[in-house]
Amino acid sequence: MVKVDGGGDLRSSLNRLQELSLWPFLTRIIGYLNEHRIKSYVVGGLLRDMMLGRVVADIDIAVTSDGPGTAAGIASAIGGKHVILDKINRIGRVVVADQGAPSGKGQWEFDFTAIKENIEQDLARRDFTVNAMAIDTGQIGGDVPSLQLIDPFNGLDDLEKGVIRVVSETALESDALRLMRAIRLAAELGFSISQPTETLIQASSHLLAGVAGERVRDELLRLMVLPGAGESMLYLDKLCLLTVIFPELAKTKEVEQPKEHYWDVFGHSLRTVAAVEFLLRQGTLEYAGNKVLAIVPWSDMLSDHFNQKVSSSPRSALIKLAALLHDIAKPQTRAIDAAGRMRFIGHANEGAVMIAGLLSRLRFSVKEAKLVETMVKHHLRPGQMAQEGLPTSRAIYRYFRDTEGTGIDILFLNLADHLATRGPNLILSNWKEHARMTEYVLLKHLEEESITRPAKLVDGHDIIDVFAINPGPQVGELLEAVREAQAAGEITTREEALGYIHDCLLSKAG
Questions:
Q1: What ranges in 88-170 are assigned the alpha helix state H?
Q2: What's the pTM value of the predicted model, to 2 decimals?
C-alpha cells in the first residue's frame, strides 16, 4: 500500500532514484531542460513504480516543447541516441547505454512527450489513472519540504486500492491497444480492473482489430512472459479480446472432443497454456500439484533453454503461444470414423499451415513463426515415437532431425497437452509413464550428442567417387540413411558406412 503524508513517502520513493545508475542521466536531463527553460514533468510509469517499490522500467517526461526535438538535443548533450517514436503525437525517445539498467537491455530509455496545452490536459489524455500522475521535475532531488503530486484523476487512490481504471470513457478509443494493456498492467502489478472499465473494454473489444499487428504481438508476448499467462488468456476471452486477436479460435468453442478430454477444444487450448507454465515451473495448476510435477524432468540446462531468445522473444513465451494454438485446426478436421470414434485426422499439419499466416498477420519474425509452426506440426510426435515401451535410438534420431531445433520444446508441449486433456481426471500411472518416456528421450539427446549430430563417416564426394553416382538428390538420401543407421548404432566406421550404402543400392536395384 502506498502512503503519502505531506510528501514524506513520496519524497522517500523519489530519493531512491539516487540509488540507481539512472540518477546521473536523469539529473543531466533535468539540467538540460532547466538550462533551455523547458518546463517538464515526470509522469506515468516512473512515479507508479517508485511508489510501489518496483523496478523502474518506464521513464516518461512531458515537456512544454517539441518531444522529438527535445530528445535530439538531450541525446547530443548526454551522449545518447534518439529516435522519433510517434510523429503525430510528437514523442521522441533517448536511449543511453548502461549495464546497470534493470531491463536486461543494458540501456535506459527516456520518452519525451510534447504537452499540447497544460499538464492537466496532458494527463487527461492518458490511459489509466495510475499512469495519470505527474510531478514537476524541479522537485526531484531538491530540498522541497512538501512535494506536490499532480493527480487530477485520483490515481494515487487507485494505486492504494490496487485498481486499474480508465482516465475517461474515450481513453480506449484514442488507442485501442489500451484494451490489452489494461489486462497486461493488471497482471504485471497484481491489480484488478474496475467493473466499469471491464464493461467498457468488452463494449470496445472490436476496436482492437484496427491496431497494427506488431503492437498487438508485443502486448501478447508481454502477457505470455508474465506469471499467470493461462489466466490472462482466459481473461482476454472474458473481455471478448482473444478472438479479436485470433479469430480462428472462435471456431474451436464448443467443439466436442473424445471422452478422455475434460474440456472442449477451446477450453483445452487455453488450459494447455497454463499447463506449459506449470511444467516450466512458472505457475500452479488447481488439479495438479507437486506430486505430478516432481516426476517431470527439470534442470538448469532446461531452464536456460526456455529462457533463450528467438529473435526478441523468450522460448517460454513462444511455447505458450504454440500451446494456445496447437489444436486450431481441429474444427475443420473433426470426423466420426466407421467405428463411431471421433477423429481429428491431419489437424496438426493443417494447424501448422494456419499458424504461418496467422503469425505473419501479427508481424512475428520468420524465426519465431517457424518455431511455433514446427511445434504445432509435431506436437503429437512424442506419443507416436513410443507406441510400445521406450523409443528406439533410430526413432529419437528421426524425431530431433524432423523437429528442427524444437525437440525439447515439443516434449514439454506434449506433456502439457496430456495434462490439459485429462484435467482433474488425470491418471497418475499414465502420467508417470509419459514423464518417464520424456526423461529417457531427453537423456538420450543430452548425454549422447551423437544421436542428433553424429560424426561424419562419409560425405557426398565419397559416394560419388566410390559408387560412380552422379550428383543429385540420391546422394543426399544416402547420406541421411547413413546418419540414421549411425544414430541407431548399426554402423560406427567408414568401412561399415560404405558397406551400408552398397547394400542400400543393391536393395533399390533389386
A1: 119-124, 155-161
A2: 0.83
